Amino acid sequence: MIENVRTVIAAFAFDGAVEKAEPFGSGHINDTLLLTTAKGTQYILQKMNTYVFTRPQELMENVFGVTEFLKKRIVEQGGDPNRETLTFIQTRDGALYYNGPEGAWRAYRFQSDLIGLNAPRSPRDFYASGKAYGRFQMLLSDYPAETLHETIPHFHDTPERMKQLRAAIEKDAAGRAASAQAEIDFALARESSCGIVMELQNQGALPLRVTHNDTKLNNVLLDPRTGEGVCVIDLDTVMPGQAIFDFGDSIRYGASTAAEDEKDLSRVALDLDLFEAYTRGFLEGCNNVLTPAEKGLLPTGAWMMTLECGVRFLADYLNGDVYFKTAYPDHNLVRARTQFKLVREMEEKQDQMQAIVAKY
Ligand code: ADP
Ligand code: GN1
Ligand code: MG
C-alpha cells in the first residue's frame, strides 16, 4: 500500500517519517488511508474523488475556510479547536492539497481518541450526533455564505435529482432499466410531491443556512468515554442549504433499523425511538433557532432526503455505478430498495413523527 503513495506522502509536511498506510473508514466517495509515523503520530490521507468533486481547489478553499472559522468559534466557547474540528496539514509548498499524476490528495490529523459509528449502539449515540450536527450549524450561523463555492450544484434539489433519474432511465447506459421497473415506478410516483421544499425556499418561506448536507452518523466522531458527539467531519458539501435536510439525512441513515444496504427488506423500518432521540439532540444543538416553518417540516425533510437518496442510488445503478463506491453489481439497487422501504415507512408514520417533533 505505502509504496503506491510514497510521492504523495512526501509532498506533505508530516511530523516524522510515515511507516504505515492502511485503508480506513467506509465512506462512499473518497479513498481514505490512515497513516502512522515512526513516532506513532497518525494522519488521514485522502484521495478526493474528482469525478464527484470536479474542482478540488474550490473544495479545499471551502473546507479550509470552514475549519478556520470553526476553530475561532470553538476557542471563544472555551473548547479545544484541534479536537472539535478537523486540522488540515498543508503541503511542503504551502498548498491546501497535493495535485499530481496520482490525483488530488489532502491530509489531516487523525483523531485517535474519537470513534466513528456506522450504526447507533443506542438512542444515546444518535442523540449525541444530533446535538453535534445542530451545534455545527449554529457555530456556522454567521459564516459568510457568499464566500462558499457550490461544490456540487443542486446537491439537495430533489426535483432536479428526479430529472437526473429520468435522464438515466432514458439513456439506460448499463441496460438495467428493465430490471428496476418497480423501483423506477416507486420513485416517479412521488415526483409531483417532492418539490415542496424548493418552492418554499424560492418564496423565502424557509431560510437558507450554511449547512453540512451529508449528515450520516459516520460523519461525526464521538468520544467513546463520555458518548458525546465531538467533531463533525466530511466537510466537502458544506454549502448554503436547508436545516431540515441536515436533520433529514441523519434520520434517513441512522433511524433505520437496518444498514443502508440491507438485502432483507423485512428488517428495514423507521425506529421512532431513534427518531425522537435525534430530534431532541438536533433541536438542542441548534439552540432552538429553527423557525416554526422549519420545525414543522422536519419530518418532510426526512422523507425527502430518503426519497432523494434512493433516487440517486437508483440513477447511479442505471448509469452503471459511476458515482457511489459499490462492492457488488446490484449494490446501488439494493441501497435504493432500502431507501424506498424507509420512504414508505415514513409515509405511514408521518403523524407519529409530527407528534414527536411537537414535543420539543
Ligand atoms: P467520505 O466522503 O468518503 O465519506 P470521510 O471524510 O467521511 O470520506 O472519511 C471516511 C471515513 O474516515 C470516515 O467515515 C471516518 O470513519 C474516517 N475519518 C475521516 N477523518 C477522520 C479523522 N480526522 N479522525 C478519525 N477518523 C476519520
Ligand atoms: C455519500 O461521502 P459519504 O459516504 O459520507 C454522499 C451522500 C449520500 C451518502 C449515502 C458527496 O456520503 O450525499 O447521502 O453517500 N456524498 C456525496 O450513503 O455525494
Ligand atoms: Mg463520510
List keywords for this structure.
360 residues, alpha+beta, Phosphorylase Kinase, domain 1, Aminoglycoside 3'-phosphotransferase, Chain: A, domain 2, six-stranded antiparallel beta sheet, two-stranded antiparallel sheet, 13 helices, globular, binds adenosine-5'-diphosphate, binds 2-acetamido-2-deoxy-1-O-phosphono-alpha-D-glucopyranose, binds magnesium ion
Structure notes:
A hairpin with a 2-residue loop joins strand 5 and strand 6. Helix 4 runs antiparallel to helix 8. The strands form 3 sheets. Strands 1, 2, 3, 4, 5 and 6 form a 6-stranded antiparallel sheet that branches. Strands 7-10 form a two-stranded antiparallel sheet. It has 13 helices and 10 strands. The protein folds into 2 domains: 3-109, 2-Layer Sandwich (Phosphorylase Kinase, domain 1); 123-359, Aminoglycoside phosphotransferase (APH), C-terminal lobe (Aminoglycoside 3'-phosphotransferase, Chain: A, domain 2, Alpha-Beta Complex). With 360 residues, it is an alpha+beta fold. Bound molecules: adenosine-5'-diphosphate, 2-acetamido-2-deoxy-1-O-phosphono-alpha-D-glucopyranose and magnesium ion (MG). The site of adenosine-5'-diphosphate has 18 residues, from loops.
Ligands:
adenosine-5'-diphosphate, 2-acetamido-2-deoxy-1-O-phosphono-alpha-D-glucopyranose, magnesium ion
Radius of gyration: 20 Å
Average the pLDDT over all residues and give the rounded result: 96
Terminus-to-terminus distance? 49 Å
